[in-house]
Amino acid sequence: MHRPAAASGTPIAFSGSPIDRADHIRTDEAALGALMDWRARVLVLDGLLPGIDETGGLVWGSLADVPEEAELVFLGLLEGKACFAPVPGEGAEGPAYAMPRAWAVMQQLVPADLAIYGGARSLVDWHARHRFCARCGGATKIAKGGWQRHCGTCGADHFPRTDPVTIMLVEHEDRLLLGRQPRFPPKMYSALAGFVEPGETIEEAVAREIHEEAGVRVRDVRYIASQPWPFPSQLMIGCTSVADDPEITIDETELEDARWFTRAELEEARAAGEAGTDLLYFPRPFAIAHRLIAWWLDR
User: Fold this and answer.
1) Strand pairing report for 163-171 and 234-243
2) pTM of this prediction?
3) Per-residue model confidence (pLDDT) at position 128
4) Nearest Cα to 119, choosing from 32, 17, 190?
5) Average pLDDT, integer, range 271-283
6) Strand runs (DSSP E) across 133-174, as ranges?
7) Closest Cα to residue 251, out of 195, 201, 185, 182?
8) Which domains are delineated in the chain?
9) How confident is the model at residue 5 (pLDDT cuts 50, 70, 90)?
10) Lowest-confidence region among 2-6, 25-29, 179-183
11) Bridging pattern class, strands 148-151 and 41-43
């Protein structure tokens, strides 16, 4: 298995959480209740944004800081202490790219804290958006330590979801196909990506998305690495593929532009960092697209 994270020496952003999820405690109400004492830690959140201390780390409070009516999610155990996160009054509004404060926070946190925050954010955001039953519309309440919601009206159980998204490199004669969406900053190009649809394998989703967005047929799809992406709760599945015919036909409802970049062009952009080149900006380090392209350049 290929490991682009190893080349950089740091885990892929939002991965590598030090928290023990302690599934055996989630289903044991007595054991969970026994952990809810003065030693328990509660992640401080401002809505869905984390509190950051003077050192750039996550801020933790205690159960005494939480209003009685607040819903709490059990994140797991860290250094022997139970960790919780409060469910905000509302879930996320708008797509990830419309959250500049979130981007700023992500760049301050060390990898372990970023992973803790990412997992907590996905979970509490799901709870905030699922207070009513999808089957009957009745009110739901937290169960299994926050890893389930139960409808008291029809008895249905609902579970936090993760949406699989493929993000893929396309190679042709030592070049990579990258695209840009209209919302991207100028000169920003990235790997093509799209949701896996019902009834598809990962390989089928990769081939379909690339053909839909850029009109390119690919083969030899291989998995490279994955990344949790908490906006709101996706699993980015990084793959690589090969094209025999480089002709591009852009779907303008999906992409503003798509083009082939040479190895030299990508190396120059990576070396330029945030300044970029006259041609493009290299994807930001917290994005799996950065790791995938770096893996391709370094292999």
Assistant:
1) parallel
2) 0.92
3) 96
4) 17
5) 92
6) 140-143, 148-151, 157-158, 163-171
7) 182
8) 8-125 (no CATH), 130-160 (no CATH), 163-298 (3.90.79.10)
9) very low
10) 2-6
11) unpaired
